[in-house]
Design a protein that fits this description.
This protein has one domain: Alpha-2,3-sialyltransferase (sialyltransferase cstii, chain A, Alpha-Beta Complex), CATH 3.90.1480.10. Helices cover 34% and strands 12% of the residues. The chain is built from ten helices and seven strands. It has a seven-stranded parallel β-sheet, with helices on both faces. The longest helix has 12 residues. The mean pLDDT is 95.
Length: 251
Amino acid sequence: MRETLRDENYTNFIEGKRVVLVGPAEYLSKLKLGEEIDSFDIVIRVNRGMELISKYESSVGNRTDILYNCLIDSPDNGGNIDITEWKKKGVKWVSTIPKSDFNGVCKSEDLHRMVKPKHVEKIKCNFNFHIMNYKAYGMLNTLLGCRANTGYSAIFDLLTHKCKELFVTGFSFYLDAFTKGYKDGCERNEDIFAQQCFVSKRHNQNAQWSHLKAYSKGSNILKFDPVLQYILEMDEFSREKFNYDFSVHTD
């Protein structure tokens, strides 16, 4: 039997749907895409993204159908694994990525050593649970030459599962900060945290930007908010060169 890279139950949930993937980049708080985000068939957030809803609903929307979370229970990573809150917010699927080494080599669907098995068991008891196929994750990492971020991995995991449209918003490859409040409880604030992520060797942002820049040119499924589209059209991956004119979005 030919091996598939798809989780068929996950495919059944996503196939043919208009899907939006919402990231935590600060620029999203300057747009008013909340209603548009909530109009999609499936709304997906990353790690601590649901924590931004109460303060930025007009920008980030309200719904959450799928949560992509690294499942590392700390404010620096996936945030608090709060089953009750996730259920209250309407989450139907919790998705994650398998572990890999520093260079992105992935050999099994085992999870990161910092993921607590007791949390995984609780998640499985309360939600549908999906792990990105380890071969697909490994192939993506090979193309990048590094470990893909959870949110970036989600893009290609979702495309594998046959969504009709994938609208990506709130991703800047750390050319700006995290949205204020996203890193509450961390020793570093959102700006310093993002600056350090920008130069990460483990999750090479230039490699991920270059890959999406090239990949998206051949896709009729991927769509982006105007800021991310601008980022992908930049000639040089540079924080100094990121000077998007947000005045065009003022009422």
